Amino acid sequence: MDFAFGSADEEFRAAAREWLAGHLVGPYAELAGRGGPGSEHEGAAARRAWERELGAGGWIGLGWDRAHGAYGNRAASLTQQVVWAEEYARARAPGRVGHIGENLLAPTLLAYGDEAQRRRFLPAVARGEELWCQGYSEPDAGSDLAGLRTVAVRDGAGYRISGQKIWTSLAGEADWCFVLARTDPDERRHRGLSFLLVPMDQPGRIEVRPIRQMSGTAEFNEVFFDGAVARAGHVVGGEGAGWRVAMGLLALERGVSTLVQQIGFAAELAEVVAAAVRGGALGDPVLRDRLVRQWAELRVMRWNALRTLGAAGDAGAPSVAKLLWGGWHQRLGELAVRVRGAEAALGPLDWTAGAPYELDAAQRLFLFSRADTLYGGSDEIQRTIIAERVLGLPRVER
C-alpha cells in the first residue's frame, strides 16, 4: 500500500510549515509542546488566543464539506489534512483547546444539523472564537451511555435541562456544550434521547467543578445542570434522534487527529529511549526488546490510521484505533518510569519548596496514561462493538 504524498500535498506542506514558523513566535513560542492531554492546565489563556490566530489564518476546519457553504475554513483534501496535522505536531505547536468544536461538533452538524445550525455555529468555530465541550458521560452512565439520567423537559420555546455530567474536558473554558439528554421519559435506553446545544454561561443553572487527579492537575470536570436552558432550534437531528447523532459523532472521533496524536507519541517514545541510553537501561535485553516493540507498534498504528481515514462506513475502524493506541500509550508510560529505575519514584530534591510538588514529564506520562484504556470508551466497550457490529457475534443481554 502506497502512503506517499503527491506534489500538491508537498506544496501544501511547505505553506503550512512557513505559516507555523512565522506565527509560532513570542508567547506562542513559549507554549511549544505544552497543553493537551495530561497538561491541559498549561497556558490556557494564551492557547485560546492561539486558537483565534489559527482561525484568522484559515487553518481551522480544513476540508469541511464545501457543498454546505463556506464557513471561514480553507479547502483541503484528505491528504492535505494529514499534512497539516503532521506539520502542526512537528512544529510542537500548542495543544489545541478548540479541537472538540472542530473535530467533533462541526462534522456532526455537517452530517445531521440543519442549515441554520451550521451557519450559527460553524463560522465561530472556524474563527477560533467559540470553544466546546462534550456532555456525554455521567456518574452511572459512562461506557454504558444509553443509561444516562440527565433530562431535558420542553418549556415553551426551549428545554430545561437537569442532571450531571462527568469527565468533561475543557468544561471550564468552553462557551458551549453538546449534551445528550432524555427528552421522552416514557422511553428507555437509547430511545427518547436528544442531542442539544447548550450555552455554558448560565450562572446558577450550570456549575463546573474540576476533578483533581493523582497527577496533581485537573484535566476533567463535573458539570451540574439545574434547569439550564437550550433553544428548541438547537436540537440536532430532531427530538428523539439523539442516539443516532451521538453514535455518528463517536465514529468521527478517531480521524485525522489520530495522526497528530501519533506524532506526539513518537516524541514521547524518543524521550523514553534517550532516558534509557542516558541511564544505561538500554543494556537490558528485555527493556531493549520492549522499546523496539513500541516503535514497531507505533508504525503499525500510523499505517492503520492512514488506511482507514477514507473508509466510510467501517463500523469497527474507530474501535480498532482506540484499542491500539490506548494500550500502546499505557505501556509507554510504564516504560517511561521503568527505564529510570528507582529515580522515577522520587520527587524534586529540594523539599523546602513544600507540597504539592511538580511531577516531571515521565511521571505525568505514567500516571495520566492509566486512564487511556478507559476514557473515550473503555477497552471492554470497544471489543464489544467489534464483536457485535463487525464480527456479527450474538449481542450480550444487558
UniProtKB/TrEMBL annotation:
Keywords: FAD, Flavoprotein, Oxidoreductase. It comes from the Bacteria. GO terms for molecular function: flavin adenine dinucleotide binding; oxidoreductase activity, acting on the CH-CH group of donors. The keyword Transmembrane does not apply. Gene3D superfamilies: Acyl-CoA dehydrogenase/oxidase, N-terminal domain, Butyryl-CoA Dehydrogenase, subunit A, domain 2, Butyryl-CoA Dehydrogenase, subunit A, domain 3. Residues 133-226 form the Acyl-CoA oxidase/dehydrogenase middle domain. Its cofactor is FAD. Residues 240-391 form the Acyl-CoA dehydrogenase/oxidase C-terminal domain. GO terms for cellular component: plasma membrane. Residues 10-129 form the Acyl-CoA dehydrogenase/oxidase N-terminal domain. It holds the Pfam family Acyl-CoA_dh_M. Belongs to the acyl-CoA dehydrogenase family. This is Acyl-CoA dehydrogenase. It comes from Streptomyces lydicus. The lineage of its organism: Bacteria, Bacillati, Actinomycetota, Actinomycetes, Kitasatosporales.
